[in-house]
Amino acid sequence: MVQGHHPAPPRTAGAHGVVPSVVPRPPGPDALVERVAAAASSSPVAAGPEQVTGAQAIVRSLEESGVDVVFGIPGGAVLPLYDPLMDSTRVRHILVRHEQGGGHAASGYAHATGRVGVCIATSGPGATNLVTPIADANMDSIPMVAITGQVGASFIGTDAFQEADIVGITLPVTKHNFLVTNADDIPRVIAEAFHIASTGRPGPVLVDISKSAMQAQTTFSWPQQLNLPGYHPVTKPHSKQIREAARLLATARRPVLYIGGGVIRAGASAELRALVDASGAPAVTTLMARGALPDSHPQHLGMPGMHGTVTAVAALQKADLIVALGARFDDRVTGKLSSFAPNATVVHADIDPAEIGKNKAVDVPIVGDLREVLADLLPELAREHTRHGKPDLEGWWRQIDDWRETFPLGYTDPDDGHLAPQHVIQRIGEISGPESIFVAGVGQHQMWAAQFIRYERPNSWLNSGGLGTMGFAVPAAMGAKVGAPDRTVWAIDGDGCFQMTNQELATCTINDIPIKVAVINNSSLGMVRQWQTLFYNERYSNTDLHTGHGTRRVPDFVKLADAYGAVGLRCESKADVDATIRRAMEINDQPVVVDFTVSPDAMVWPMVAAGVSNDEVQYARGISPAWDRED
């Protein structure tokens, strides 16, 4: 039997829900629709059914789904799968050191390539170790299929050894999940899992398969069509809503395009660029949308929100029209919601209807795939320009340019003799170049990487945006490098985050995955320390990690790198920053870990304190723009 569980309520163009389903994300092999049709004519499966075990059926199903790599760890309940997996010539298995690493690696692979990432774990603790990466993928709308072994069907519910109800546990953090206890159901369920994960609003799908189903004999038959009643995501937007959005954009005096990660998930960056050019409107890109519009574009104002640019924050606050594309009005963007963009008419386009109006009241809701939304909006906007003329945005741009000049992104060198982390990260971006992939952990280094690296293309910036998962960077960078082996991949990590998942350096060394890790080592839990500085009277409770300053380093990251078979470098002087980065860039046959000893007192600015209005953005400590807040 198969049990399917849907989370409630459904979600949007960025995470989970039982509504999403759309055209496949580029490069396409993730959606089963075309693959099923092709299988009928070209696949050996079409020649007729064959007798296999359930475990063999899983491997065959992965092959038919276009999977080329999976990340996992074997264990008792999933052991039947690992035997036939060894014989597959089409699916590469990468043995990770912790299930969390496998989940984040699958996520990094998916984010870098647009394809579905796959991870495997055994029952009980193996499966529960996947909960964090599944929840992470869910928040950030990453297409992922997690396959877990389960105890034999007759033991389910008896508290058997290494039994955990992973379907129930992950119910709130998956787009959909399945429990399979009949081997005959395996091909159909896996086909459905890949289709659900990759269509509509992408997200993680869990397939929990009992050991008895893996060991049973079955007839393998790849489904020729998918039957998913109730799963019909709307991809084509309503023409009336498109016309109204075009009219508003053509007549607004202070418009802002608010770009979210859904644009990247939809593969709609080219269409977005066309809309930005045609509209003449300023655009902001959220933490999850960095790279959706090139930073070099003159209409790009940078990142909005808690640590966004003053210009991006101010533009949203003063806008008379906000066109939100694949964004979810997250609290880190809006600040105090009741005071966010008080005078703006709101157009909100998203693949997930549950996101529209969830946080911010919307005047023009548009449900649809963003690539189709933008393709329909462009000609309508041209017609409105013919009817009304191009809008006069000269005064708006004059105001924006004044903010840009007055409040540019910047930093001051620390006076304690340590490196400025902003300088280190900026130079990594400049030396490595825009064709590289940059993956961040969570905290100060994440914000600095979002601020000081210039992103010129989509899928070049990976981070844990919604869940904020420490330990994300190293395994996600590993997965990204597997998916994009010809690109340089940097993990920009903190000394706290790095210690959570650095065991995956062993995976990288053994499997020839030469990622580069920049440890921004301030010897503390940096973002927590910043909040303790600002809001807790500099009482630094349990944030000193003892990793970088003084004579005692616990651990010594250079020695740790060496122990894992990686190259360890250390940089403590500004004069050595460029040479150290270039040395790391020269090493392409091993992982590299660079320990950058930075100031513990460096802070992320600008900043909007949690729960206050974006009007109160601070450019630096105690310094706020002096605009008329009643205006």
Short description:
It catalyses: 2 pyruvate + H(+) = (2S)-2-acetolactate + CO2. By secondary structure, the protein is of the alpha/beta class.
Model description:
With 631 residues, the chain is α/β, with parallel strands linked by helices. It contains 24 helices and 20 strands. The protein has a 7-stranded mixed sheet, with helices on both faces. It has a 6-stranded parallel sheet with strand order 16-15-17-18-20-19, with helices on both faces. A 5-stranded parallel sheet has the order 11-10-12-13-14, sandwiched between helices. Helix 2 (54-64) crosses helix 3. The termini are far apart.
Helix/strand class: alpha/beta
Strand content: 15-25%
How far apart are the termini?
62 Å
* Mean pLDDT metric: 92
Number of strands: 20
The largest sheet, given as strand count, sense and whether it forms a barrel, is: 7 strands, mixed
- The 3D shape can be described as globular
Helix count, per DSSP?
A: 24
